[in-house]
Amino acid sequence: MTTPTEPTRTAGGGGRVLIALTGVVLAVLLIGVGGYLWLSNGEGGPTALGGPFTLENGNGKTVTDRDFRGRYMLVYFGYTFCPDVCPTTLNAVADAMDKLGPKADRVQPVFITVDPKRDTPAVVKQYAAAFGSRIEGLTGTPEEIAKVAKEYRVYYAEHRTGPGPNDYTMDHSSILYLMGPDGRFIAPVRADQSGDEMAAVLARLIS
Ligand code: NI
């Protein structure tokens, strides 16, 4: 009776091994691809991060990514009702720009809302102005925002806090993106650092 059971067990074991091996191979492939993309981005090489966008500025005027060519863009995604992370980050950006010296003239910090329902052009304009004159606030239709967020691989989602139409917060990823004068991604910049630290990072990355 051992002869029929042995091959069956072996076949079953072989199947499990095969499934496990497939999983390992897939994991290695995914890690490899992710690592490659991350490294190539960090080295300023070819990248798929960022891309063309059409949005509205604080005056309700249409702006596109091409309007920023010739200058570095420091892009941040957030929303004006954000209780803590966004204002802290934008304060640090404003501080970094003050401390960057003449190089600051080559950088345009851009705040793109992930809450276009509440963040109208007038709202983003007033909000950005609260952090100084250098930050440009942008909004758009929900579709335009979804498109640009996808290009920058930004995560955002509405989080309900009550039954009313405005009873919600936005979960969102918090990272700054430095884009070159040609519009290409240069490097991510950590949002959770002081203006001094951010200025030092930007000074190294900006030519
Ligand atoms: Ni925020």
What do these coordinates show?
With 207 residues, this protein is an alpha/beta fold. The protein is built from five helices and nine strands, in the order H-E-E-E-H-E-H-E-H-E-E-E-E-H. Strand 6 and strand 7 form a beta hairpin. The radius of gyration is 23 Å and the shape is globular. The protein binds nickel (II) ion. The site of nickel (II) ion (NI) has 6 residues, from helix 2. The site of nickel (II) ion has 6 residues, from helix 2.
SSE map:
Blueprint (H helix, E strand, L loop, with lengths): L1 H41 L11 E3 L5 E3 L7 E7 L6 H15 L7 E7 L7 H9 L6 E3 L3 H10 L4 E5 L7 E5 L2 E5 L5 E6 L4 H11 L2
Parallel strand pairs: 3-4, 4-5
Antiparallel strand pairs: 1-2, 3-8, 6-7, 8-9
Helix pairs in contact: 2-5
The site of nickel (II) ion (NI) has 6 residues, from α2.
Briefly, what is this?
The chain is α/β, with parallel strands linked by helices and 207 residues long. Helix content is 42%, strand content 21%. The radius of gyration is 23 Å and the shape is globular.
Number of domain units? 1
Any idea what the radius of gyration is? 23 Å
Biggest β-sheet: count, sense, barrel?
A: 5 strands, mixed
What portion of residues belong to β-strands? 15-25%
Mean pLDDT: 85
First-to-last CA distance: 77 Å
Spatial strand arrangement across the major sheet: 5-4-3-8-9
CATH class: Alpha Beta
Q: What is the helix/strand order? A: HEEEHEHEHEEEEH
CATH homolog superfamily: Glutaredoxin
List the total number of helices.
5
Structural class call reads alpha/beta
Which term fits the overall shape?
Answer: globular
> Could you give the count of β-strands?
9
CATH architecture: 3-Layer(aba) Sandwich
- Percent of residues in helices comes to 40-55%
- Ligands: nickel (II) ion
> Runs with pLDDT <50, length 5+?
1-13, 24-37, 39-46
At CATH level 3, the topology is Glutaredoxin
